[in-house]
Amino acid sequence: MKTFEYTITDALGIHARPAGLLAKEAKAFADTVITVAKGGNAVKASQLMKLMSLGVKQGDVVTVTADGANEDAAIAAMEAFFKANL
What we know:
Elements: E1 2-7, H1 16-27, E2 32-38, E3 41-44, H2 48-53, E4 61-68, H3 71-85
Antiparallel strand pairs: 1-4, 2-3, 2-4
């Protein structure tokens, strides 16, 4: 299992557009479970509506976890995605 923490810098937080892109990126790793957690609530990154239900705002710290066969590649891709989009 691989994990990293990220502080959201996007002024709108995780809203519809980046959440949709994040879900699409996570679905590319079908053999790895990727989760995003905030304040004790964790959801699968591939589930758009659940991602948005976390209510992540600018300045919030999220924990991203990848567990599975491609966890190294998945966590690297997620970290790059967060830095580029959120």
